[in-house]
Design goal:
alpha+beta; 10 strands; single chain; elongated
Length: about 350
């Protein structure tokens, strides 16, 4: 006999009160199940008020359960991407699509002939003390960087990069003992834009005083058979200036005077004399040059002495040392009926530029 509350015939073997297998008993009717339903049943009040059918079909958006937070996140991402694209187009420091090729460097080297004998002394300190270079600074200290700031199209860091690279070029090309002695050119070569390497190499393989392939226009070096440094201290004074040439180019102008203590090669007992080089260099930098810390030498103007005007070497400087004179030699004349570049430039080294010893 069945107990109270039991269905007639007793409890089914499967334990379900209605008997037979309940195919829905494992289904959980949670919120996600309800949201995923294709049909939504209206409430009795909605059916009475709106005269609507008992059910309506859910839209795909409602079935997917796309929350308001997800929509907001999507909008924010779209705005961020759009802003990034806009700033990429409008950014003032954006790299141009293509860089202009570097121009060939133009160079002029003017020898300065002494008016009398070249003064000399036993040591360089005495010469410096009695010369215009008395207050010059030693070596790279004489090539200070100026105050720098951003320009219309270049950041302060890019301006600093241009100034620093120009200083490196000046130091390596005019103060490195290996370069001065004619033993090395690579420290200077590695700082140049690749477009200028062909002109640079030709200037040392086949130097010519033609305004384009003068080795001493790229760097300072002495004939090792004639002169060597008598003292490690080279005196320098000068300045660096920068300007924005256009939206894609920076220019740096350098104007420095270097004074070298020299003596005859291999003669430690010979008197020392001073040799002066005034260099005006103009450098150009595009954005790729700034990134790779290299430069384009646009123009080089050099005045150097004491030298003989008759010496037209484009390869090395051959200084007149202590006790020497310029002699009566003169450079060959320039023929205006030819297409050759004039090479007969020569100047006179003023007496006040020489040490008073």
């Amino acid at each position: 006999m069945a107990g109270l509350g039991d269905p007639p015939g007793g409890t089914p073997e499967d334990g379900s009160p209605g008997g037979g297998e309940d195919e829905y008993r494992s289904t959980v009717f949670d919120e996600s199940f309800v949201r995923a339903a294709r049909l939504e049943e209206f409430s009795a009040r909605q059916r009475l008020t709106d005269h609507a059918p008992a059910v309506r079909r859910r839209t795909a958006l409602r079935r997917a359960g796309l929350s308001r937070q997800a929509v907001i996140l999507f909008v924010l991402i779209a705005v961020a991407v759009g802003t990034a694209l806009y700033m990429g187009v409008r950014h003032p420091y954006q790299s141009p699509a293509a860089q202009r090729p570097a121009e060939p460097a133009r160079m002029t080297v003017v020898p300065l002939a002494p008016q009398g004998r070249v003064p000399g002394a036993a040591d360089a300190e005495r010469l410096y003390a009695h010369s215009p270079a008395a207050d010059f600074r030693a070596a790279a200290k004489g090539v200070p960087l100026p105050d720098h700031r951003r320009t219309a199209h270049f950041s302060g860091d890019q301006v600093l990069s241009a100034l620093t690279t120009a200083k490196h070029y000046i130091v390596r090309s005019a103060l490195d003992p290996d370069v001065l002695g004619g033993r090395e050119v690579r420290p200077v070569r590695v700082l140049l834009d690749p477009d200028q390497l062909g002109q640079f190499d030709e200037s040392f393989e086949r130097p010519a005083p033609d305004g384009w392939h003068t080795a001493t226009g790229w760097l300072v070096r002495f004939d090792p058979a004639r002169a060597e440094l008598a003292d490690a201290e080279i005196r320098v004074r000068g300045s660096l200036r920068f300007t924005e040439r256009d939206a894609s180019t920076l220019e740096v102008t350098a104007d420095h005077t270097m004074v070298y203590p020299l003596r005859p090669t291999g003669d430690d007992r010979a008197e020392t004399s001073l040799f002066t080089v005034r260099r005006e260099l103009r450098f150009r930098f595009d954005r790729e040059d700034l990134r790779l810390h290299r430069t384009q030498l646009v123009a080089s103007r050099v005045q150097a002495g004491p030298l003989s005007c008759a010496d037209r070497s484009a390869d090395r400087l051959r200084p007149l040392l202590a006790g020497r004179t310029a002699g009566t030699g003169a450079p060959a004349g320039t023929d205006p009926y030819t297409e050759d570049t004039p090479t007969a430039l020569c100047g006179t080294l003023a007496e006040r530029a020489q040490p008073k010893v």
